[in-house]
Amino acid sequence: MKHTIVGNGVAGVTAAQAIRQADPDAEVHVYGAEPYPYYRRPLLWEFIAGQIEQDALFFRPSAWYAERGIALHLGSEITALDPASHHITLSDKSQVEHDSLLLATGARPFIPRSEGTEKKGVFTLRTLDDALAIKAYAQGVSTAIVIGGGLLGLETARALHTAGLEVIVVEFFPYLLPRQLDEEGARVLQALLEAQGLQIVTGATTEAVLGVPCADCIQLQDGSKITGDLILFSTGIRSEVGLAKEAGLEVNRGVIVNSHLQTSARDVFAAGDVAEFAGQVYGIIPPAIEQARVAAANMVEPGSATYTGTLPSTTLKVVGAELTTLGEGTAEGDEYTQLRHADVASGHYRKLVLRDGHVVGAILLNDPGRARAVRQLIERGVDVSAYADHLLDDDFDLESLPKTT
Ligand SMILES: Cc1cc2nc3c(=O)[nH]c(=O)nc-3n(C[C@H](O)[C@H](O)[C@H](O)COP(=O)(O)OP(=O)(O)OC[C@H]3O[C@@H](n4cnc5c(N)ncnc54)[C@H](O)[C@@H]3O)c2cc1C
Q1: Nearest 5°: phi and psi at 50?
Q2: Model confidence over 150-180: pLDDT tens digits?
Q3: Which residues neighbour 60 within 8 Å (Cβ) at sequence distance 6 or greater?
Q4: Closest residue (by CA) to atom 53 of ligand 1?
Q5: What are the φ and ψ backbone dihedral angles of 276, each rounded to 5 degrees?
Q6: Which member of 95, 166, 229, 276 has the lowest number of beta carbons within 10 Å of its beta carbon?
Q7: What are the angstrom distances between the C-alpha of 350 and each of 188, 210, 343?
Q8: What is the pTM of this model?
Q9: How far apart (Å, rounded) are the C-alpha atoms in residues 192 and 348?
């Protein structure tokens, strides 16, 4: 069997390894448009902050692939797929045959339509090349504006701040991390980040990037301006669906996959940020790994593994602020009960969301000891209704709850 993987990110390398383990005799080829072997994107922040060297990024150096008999094709962009004839086309127009194919092409940053985003000094962060460009530019300037107060924006802001820049975060929503936090939790987090030296402006829509010849400020919708030399947009991602679309596969926000991670073409699978499962493009690493493993199993032995979804969970670790969000932490409505404990002064926020006596979501700020137990309660669907009044108590041991419903 010849298995081909398009994309050398976490989904691609996880699948390559899983295929190799399941089928030692298979031919495994990984094509990556970037010129580097696999590196961990979260480490790009430490790299920008000046805390690690470039070499430390490479979690899977080229030798790792060679030792496992995985053929790695770097700087090798696939330009077309033909699911019917089982061929892919490379950028030099050559064609290569395969038996099964995994699309692990990930996603790219999305910049909302605004004037001046093409100017020198405007960046997005996705790849090592982006990080190298940001790092080089940051050396010649002293102020930065990060547009987008989501997880990636805040971590990038912190990295630039650690690198010595004054940083202003500009968020469109009225509070930070609108996808993960509720307003009260966001207020606690904002106070923590401000105490660390980040400036934060919320409820602000960026309309244009100004400056000649380089960007030197942004203009907001209300006409006011914020000055900054390095402007970084962290305003979401879009799945890399171009190849799939042109090949006639079913595509929505991502490439649509079923519970076998199979696309609408029989021998073409998709995993990671490019894949849309049950209406969801996760955009984070844990689902990419789970999906890649299931896809790999099914590429080796069709129908052998099933994916049922991943509990969305994120963590943000900035100095003095450790945030974990699980499941439906921001859910609102009559069917939900919300249990909250907030302490702005000490930077603590704890929230559990219950539905029908079961925990379905959580927000834990500076409460890492609780995250594992809460995750288990959610995953196992434990009925906690008898203990609801005590779940947030400091001395209540969540681990002591029954392990089943
Ligand atoms: C700075 C940063 C920090 C992050 N930190 C976290 C974190 O802490 N926790 C977390 O859960 N998530 C984090 N994420 C998100 C996480 O990195 C993504 O969810 C993850 O990388 C998705 O993996 P993937 O393999 O699907 O896609 P990607 O990592 O995007 O890899 C896809 C690869 O496919 C290649 N490719 C695309 N098209 C082609 C083509 N036509 N031919 C050949 N190759 C192609 C791309 O060049 C790319 O290298 C972070 C993201 C960034 C940018």
Answers
A1: 85, 20
A2: 989 999 999 999 999 999 999 999 999 888 8
A3: 13, 37, 38, 39
A4: 126
A5: -120, 115
A6: 95
A7: 11, 41, 9
A8: 0.92
A9: 10
